[in-house]
Amino acid sequence: MYRRLLAASAVFALLSGVAHAQDVKTAETLRDKALLDRTAWDVAEDLTTTIGPRIVGSPAMARAKDWGAAKLKALGFTNVKVEQYAKSSWTRGEESAELTAPYPMKLTIVGLGRTPATPPEGIEAEVALFHTYAELVAAPEGSLKGKIAVITQPMVKAQDGYGYGVAGISRRAGPVEAAKRGAVALLIRSVSTSDSTVPHTGVTAFGDGVTTIPSAALGVPEAEQLERLAKKGPLRIRLKLASTVNPNNVAWNISGEIKGSEKPDEVIVIGGHLDSWDVGTGALDDATGVAITTAAAKLIGELPKHPKRTIRVVMWGSEESGGASEAYLAAHKDEVPKIVLAGESDEGADRIYGLKLPAGTQKTPFATTVANVLAPLKIYVARDAAENGGSDIEGLEEAGVPSIELRQDVTRYFDYHHTMDDTLNKVDPAQLAQNVAAWTSLIYLVADSDIDFRALRPAGAEAGKRRY
Amino acid sequence: MYRRLLAASAVFALLSGVAHAQDVKTAETLRDKALLDRTAWDVAEDLTTTIGPRIVGSPAMARAKDWGAAKLKALGFTNVKVEQYAKSSWTRGEESAELTAPYPMKLTIVGLGRTPATPPEGIEAEVALFHTYAELVAAPEGSLKGKIAVITQPMVKAQDGYGYGVAGISRRAGPVEAAKRGAVALLIRSVSTSDSTVPHTGVTAFGDGVTTIPSAALGVPEAEQLERLAKKGPLRIRLKLASTVNPNNVAWNISGEIKGSEKPDEVIVIGGHLDSWDVGTGALDDATGVAITTAAAKLIGELPKHPKRTIRVVMWGSEESGGASEAYLAAHKDEVPKIVLAGESDEGADRIYGLKLPAGTQKTPFATTVANVLAPLKIYVARDAAENGGSDIEGLEEAGVPSIELRQDVTRYFDYHHTMDDTLNKVDPAQLAQNVAAWTSLIYLVADSDIDFRALRPAGAEAGKRRY
């Protein structure tokens, strides 16, 4: 009941706010300007070129932190902050694998993020091959004793990335499940939609109380070769993984603001993550997310008058192995009620095709306005509500902050992500600009409105459900 | 004049031979059967799976030799021969490269085939970057003293592979030209049409009297990264290459026949090469060429009555670093006048789009018949004559043997060739079958005819011009 009353007053605010013709016109002007603006390209190029790969805890990540703060200042952001937090780091060493029977052949692998190392001499063992994660889980405990488990489950290519959650369980839970059954190591077919031998890393279960084993991802052709060979007879593989862990390392969330002109304490948090995996240069994951949101806020900041609310860009410091979201929430707990909306760009740089608004906002005049402004960019406003705006804003979402999802077409994204092929040449400048246009016009409309998205949320609507 | 008389009698033979309606019907039946036949797929799968990578001089190549002879026998070929010849071999060792300034970053490289090794500790030096091969050649002698030369010239994607010859000069001649100018090592952008970091190997100049330097190919994104970084300041790279050479090794040309029913001493030589690079499994280069030509001959051999002439499939033993062609010519010198035609399939497994016939054959009724039989496969008969049917038949061509070119669409081929991504999953079974259908019907028409292609050749027509 309380919620309903709030909702009604919010709708009033919304009508009086966004129906304002000048706002729509400004949003459209920003949108069209963004399509021709090269800030995002320059930011993505600069980050990937001058910093390169930047895994948490690396010297490159420390350089990236300085780069981020300097970039925000150079682009006109104010209140630039570098917020340090404790973060354990993991550093990859030398890795190799080879088939040793029925004949010797090198295998292209990459250790999963946070995998334990093998003994220095490696592990050589017979292979137990499973075509799906479910097949492995169906194996009795103890049945893989002394073996290297291999899971060859492929990933479905889908515009919305749905296949990542399905296939990704081999990476997330496979090592622990294989360990339970006695396996000495696990190899998974890369969680990838490509046909390439370039293997995909990504974080796997780790930490106190987790019993796991050395684990790596195999190139797609190698996984298929093993499947064919396994039909003909037993296989043996030798695997070497090395790595070091520093439990006392640090990471940083970096932020800067376009200060609101009328309600500067009401804040919209947008951003991408600054860290990347140690392979590739983290172009799609997530230099472009940083670039898109930074460019969008910068364009809005160049208006003769800033919108009412503050827009804060956060360059998140440790998305790939977690912790940035929790650290931010801990540092900004008191501010949470004033964070009116959050969003993250972390699905590459291909075009946005759909927008999910916070629960309760879909059928409002605000949604109609947004739909009209985004329509020329070929973006629809979805009937269903945002469920998770990105890993780094999960903490905020769980604390009650409404979020948006500007869904990118990830048909190509999972060909490259978490690989050495995540490089600048996979970024299409025209699609990148379409992203900036969408963020710029949408965030402007939010920032210059008085809408209380929390108040529109229907009773019982849940916050934050992890997408991937 | 002598040639003209011969040509006239050949046209007569052709009219009386190929205009035979039964031959056309048989060719069409074979063509349509081939489209549904899985022999080629099975051969390509078996070779890539049970043998894997098979560089000349490796234990895998010795297994491939036995595999080839056994496969021909199993498929009904007769007169199966394994012809050994002397062939120096080169074996890759550990290789690595990294940018050391302005910041440390691993570079994905692969040593060029037959490159000399670096000292065990590697070479670290400043970079001299050239955007094209021509830029490097324009540098004065001595100007690269103590430097690592880098050539970043890209390759044009073209259906006919024309870009390979243009860009490939960096690989073929770059090391020698860089050495002349004092460079201590050379890195080239992969001779590749992909956007992938997977680097492309391939043979470079080597042997007695060649002064060269350690040379490797860089992934495409790495080459582009170096170009961008070079604009900002000096670069340094560390390169390690290891390899061993065995000058006293051997290779083998393997052959089997579908014996002619009327003129068994007249021979048509077709085939692909059995060797591959040591990265990938040599699926497109050239398991599929072996598979296509073997399957075509096998299908013809299953006819109730063999065609008049003998069809000989040769699995060539050392295409990648040369020597198979010369060895075959030396061993078969006396037989050359009876080899009526030669052809090689060595451009992957994508569809054939054009046929080039031997010079003088283009405007004959035979060409018309062939054009009609191949038209449903979407293959045209080109106005221009075959210039080079493949590296392994160059020796035969230079000795006067007419050749054909069944030109494959190589739009995708140079994304993968000479890389670890040359694997079975790049083979499209439908396009593979179209290849078999073309070879089967064309070779049947040749084998059951009496045409003397040599006699049709106009005076002054040149043999063998290297395509790539």
TrEMBL record, chains A, B:
It is found in: Endoplasmic reticulum; Golgi apparatus; Lysosome; Secreted. One of its GO terms (cellular component) is lysosome. InterPro entries: CPQ, Peptidase_M28. Residues 253-439 form the Peptidase M28 domain. One of its GO terms (molecular function) is metallodipeptidase activity. One of its GO terms (biological process) is proteolysis. Gene3D superfamilies: 3.50.30.30, Zn peptidases. Homodimer. The monomeric form is inactive while the homodimer is active. This is Carboxypeptidase Q.
